[in-house]
Structures are given as C-alpha cells and as structure tokens.
Design brief:
The chain has helices spanning 97-100, 163-187, 272-275, and strands spanning 29-37, 43-49, 52-56, 60-65, 74-75, 86-87, 93-95, 107-108, 114-115, 125-130, 134-140, 143-153, 191-195, 198-205, 207-208, 213-215, 222-226, 230-235, 245-246, 256-259, 267-270, 282-283, 290-291, 305-310, 314-319, 329-335. The protein folds into 2 domains: 29-184, Sandwich (Immunoglobulin-like), CATH 2.60.40.420; 189-335, Cupredoxins -  blue copper proteins (Immunoglobulin-like, Sandwich), CATH 2.60.40.420. By secondary structure, the chain is mainly beta.
C-alpha cells in the first residue's frame, strides 16, 4: 500500500554555490524540511527541501515536517523498500512496525536501515548523525517518487553551501512546486459523458510524479448531478492510494486501528471496514455506508476505479479515509 494514513503521525540570501565557505566546529546540525503543501492542504509536494545537501562526517541533519501529509525519512542502504502491509493468519492486515516506528538508532554509516518512522504533523522531526563519508540516497516509504540525497564529506572539508543558501534555494523550489500544483488543481475537473445506462460523471484523482505533486481532492469539490446519474472515480495518481467513503449515519471509520501490547509500541492494523468495498453499486440516499475499498494506481494489487449510481435526491458528503487530515472531501448534490 502506498500510504498508511494519519497516525501516531527564508533566511538571508547567500551568493550561489561556491566551495570554500569554511566550517564551523565539528558536529554541526543541518536542517531539511519534509514535504510542502498549499494552505488548504489540497496540493501536496512530495519532496525534501533541500533535495540534496552536503555535510561533513560527524554532522547531523534534523528532518522536520513542513506539511500535513505523513512521510518517512528512510535510508535503505541499497536494500529494497520495506513492504507496507503484512497479512496475518487471522485475516487482518498489519502495518509494519519497522515502517511505523524509528529504526536503526541515531547514527548512520552507510549500511543497514535508518528510518524515522512515520512523521505525522507539522513540526515533527527526526535527527540523524552521519559518521562515514559517502553519497546516500533516502526516500519516503509512503511515496515512491519522494527521494533525497545526503552527500557526506570527510570531517573538516569546507562546505559548498551555507544553511541560508540551502534555505533560499529550497524556498524558490517550494514556491515553484506549489504554483504548479495550483495549476494542476485548476485544470482538474470531473467530465460528463452519456452511456447506455445514463449519464456518467468521471472524477479523476490525479498527481504529477515528475513534479512530485499529489492532489488530495476529487477534481470537482462539489459535483451537481441528476437522479439516475452515475459517478465514476478514477485513480490516475501513480504515487498514492485513495478511498471513496460515504459514512452515512455513522462515524467516518479510522484508516488504521491500534492494538496495544503489554510491552513495546502497539500493533497497527488497516481497518477492515475501510479495506473492503461496501454498500453495493447504487446509493439509495438513506444514510447507509458506502465504500470503494482501497483504490490503487494499477491493478493488481487492486481496483483503479469505483462507480456509484445515485437514485435519490439529496446532498451526500464523502471522504478519502486515507487523507482526512488533508481535508480530502467531496460533495455530491443530487437533484430531480
């Protein structure tokens, strides 16, 4: 699964890039921002700021959340990405602890696993000290396109840039990415077509992995349709998963359910009420629970679209349960 859900979850301008700025005392701490988003959280930038940073052996980097969407900072040392689901004998699906919680200690020498665990919420941070020169790639386990690089020089090597210069360039990149995200949102709308079974509205769920963008909305926030019409939600974002979930008269279900243990952190399980489709193919307007299950960008592992025919007038709100903190909500207004 591409995403675990929300759980436990500019300074002065320098002169471009030059070598030879000189070093402070050994053990300096640098700063990298994790993610970015628009004010309403609809546009999510799946990136690290700066994307590449050069430090010396013995230095540390503090990675700090700058967006609402969950992320990880994970150094795999050439290993394959960690799986995001662990099917259990009792039928439940566990969210792996080595993804959810920090792994590998506070230092990194270029080998083994070093993982922040899920970073959930603005300002949450994780600090890692780099002890061996090398060029190290890291990534967000939830978003495959989100990759960063740390270049570690021998201790005492002059730094190529100051933190202020990194921050300035990062701010420029962030502004450009958010502007591109705003254009993507403005260009994304539901489309309408006619079929043998009536009118079909197609609502796309989009992203732009080349620009590291995800749009946590359904194309058209409020869609107005006639009784008897069908809405078809289609996944086109290759870096995400979503749900279409009408809570009906009940509470919106949690995506992840925690099961406490006598010792150690809780076990985390995907909520089976969210994983499985429910409610059938027609929305009867009586407050029942309708759910797409997890929608994926490709099949397999799962469905890439969900259709629901609306047979009664009314106003119906639905959510992506995976992205509730980002406000991924839509409304269907059905009229006669």
């Amino acid at each position: 699964m591409a995403r675990a859900g929300a759980i436990l979850i500019c300074v002065a301008l320098g002169i471009s890039v030059f070598v030879g700025l000189g070093n402070a005392a050994p053990g300096r701490t640098w700063h990298v921002a994790v993610g970015a988003d628009s004010a309403d959280h609809a546009v999510q930038v799946l990136d690290y700021y700066p994307r590449t940073i050069t430090v010396d052996a013995g230095d540390s980097i503090t990675f700090t959340m700058a967006a609402v969407s969950d992320h990880t900072v994970t150094f795999l040392s050439g290993a394959q990405p960690l799986p995001l689901d662990e099917p259990q004998k009792d039928g439940r699906v566990r969210f792996p602890s080595n993804v959810a919680f920090p792994q590998g200690g506070r230092t990194y020498n270029g080998s083994g696993l070093a993982n922040s665990g899920l970073l959930s919420g603005l300002g949450k941070s994780w600090t890692l000290t780099f002890t061996k020169p090398g060029r190290y790639t890291y990534q967000c386990l939830l978003h495959p396109a989100q990759v960063g690089t740390v270049v570690v020089q021998p201790a005492g090597t002059p730094y190529p840039m100051t933190q202020a210069q990194y921050d300035h360039l990062a701010a420029q990149a962030r502004t450009q990415a958010l502007a591109a995200g705003a254009k993507l949102r403005a260009a994304t709308r539901a489309t309408v077509s006619e079929s043998a079974n009536g009118t079909v509205y197609t609502a796309p769920m989009v992203g732009d992995p080349a620009r590291r963008l995800a749009l946590y909305r359904f194309g058209t926030d409020t869609l107005r349709i006639k009784v008897g019409s069908t809405v078809k939600w289609v996944m086109t974002d290759p870096d995400e998963i979503h749900t279409i979930t009408f809570a009906g008269s009940g509470a919106l279900p949690d995506f992840i359910v925690a099961a406490p243990q006598a010792q150690g952190p809780p076990n985390l399980y995907y909520n089976p009420k969210v994983l499985a489709p429910a409610g059938g193919a027609s929305h009867a307007g009586i407050g029942a629970y309708y759910n797409s299950g997890i929608l994926y960008p490709v099949n397999p592992p799962g469905p890439t679209s969900y259709s629901l025919k609306f047979t009664k007038a009314g106003t119906f709100t639905y959510w992506c349960v995976v992205h509730v903190p980002e406000g991924m909500r839509g409304t269907i207004v059905v009229t006669q």
